[in-house]
Amino acid sequence: MMIELSTDIIWILNLDFRLIYTSTACFGMLGYTPEEMYHLTPGETLVPDSFNQLRAAIREYLAREPLGHDAADPVRCELTFRKKDGGLVRGELVFTAYRDDAGHLLGICGATRNITERRAVEEEMKRTQRELERRIADRSEKLSYINTLLNTEMERRKQMEFFMLHNPERDRALIGRELNEGLCQELVGMMCLCEVVRENLQGRDAVANEDITSILELLADAVRQARAMAKGLNPLLADPRSLECSLGLLAEKTSELFNVRCAFTSSNVVDIDNPDQALSLYRIAQEAVHNAVRHGKARNIEITLNGDDGNLRLTVTDDGRGRADEPENQKGMGLKIMSYRTQAMSGILRIIDRPEGGVTVDCSAPKL
After folding, report:
1. Domains of the chain
2. For residues 152-181, b (16+ Cβ closer than 10 Å) or e, as one string?
3. What value does the mean pLDDT take over residues 264-291?
4. Residue 92 burial by CB count (10 A; 0-12/13-18/19+): exposed, middle or buried?
5. Which of 318, 270, 276 lies closest to 297, judged by CA?
6. For residue 297, which of 125, 168, 189, 356 sits 20 to 30 Å off, Cα-Cα?
């Protein structure tokens, strides 16, 4: 008989709430034989809460029964059963009306399925999900904390970079103004006094006159050098074209001071409205030229500035010995400062060793 092969308990209760039939599956689920089950009431095989739940469900169902067959649909509920050995089993119960052939109500018939393992798996899944959510929340909190630390560190580094890039420039500009407005003016004043003395000695003391003339020449040379130093300390003006002029002067002064050929070219007109960007590009070129002369022993240096409406590119190429011969204790800081300046412009800095000798410093950045 198919009913006896089912693992679900098939049962029938009469209107007195007594069991009048149960399949043999009750033994596998509860440990009772059918004969033992006939002598037990539902209250003896259910925990109190589940028994009260079942009794209320049946009473509610029977109350709807007189309204017609369609008024009382099958009822489904989940109950806790007590096994013969005292253990607990979770069961899913479905019942409906039990009638004779004439349609008269005789009781309740239903089926009970053991869902203990299923509920255990579901509970384990819920527990695992709660644990996972807790871990995710914990990890999210840690990530948020780490993100806060990273943002703080990034902000600190930005402040350090700003300090490294701007404070020295501010000090250079101050010293440049002091040289131009202080020392240079005093030297010019001394030249004026010497000119007066020379005029007074005109025709009276030729030797003294020649000495005064030599002093005037030395003072004039000192003024030129002081103004050149002031210009080097604060090389740029507010003019958008000032970077091209300053790079041209850098190439000219490098050629004069170090007896090398240093040339500047610009393929098109490059207007830079951001003075910080213009100054950063100038300092990168200045550092690259300095490295080429001092460490690379270059004889020829090419400074090139190109740009369009959206991008800028500065290259400094030399024919020196390259970076391989640079002393280990002199590597690093200049390159780091050039990298800081490039990063501040959201640009890319590349240092390329040329196969024929020398180095190319290539800095490209969006126009700010």
Report:
1. 2-114 (3.30.450.20), 237-368 (3.30.565.10)
2. eeeeeeeeeeeeebeeebeebbeebeebbe
3. 86
4. middle
5. 318
6. 168
* Cα distance between residue 281 and residue 344, in whole Å: 11
Query: Residue 127: is its pLDDT beyond 90?
Result: yes
The residue with tokens 């798996």 is: 121
More confident residue, 154 or 179: 154
Strand 105-114 and strand 9-14: the pairing is: antiparallel
Written as six digits, the tokens of 100 are 């004779």
**Taking a C-beta distance cutoff of 8 angstroms, is the pair 358, 298 a contact?**
yes
- For the beta carbon of residue 144, count every other beta carbon within 10 angstroms: 10
pLDDT in tens, 39-93: 999 999 999 999 999 999 998 888 877 655 555 688 999 999 999 999 999 999 9
CB 25 within 8 A of CB 6: yes
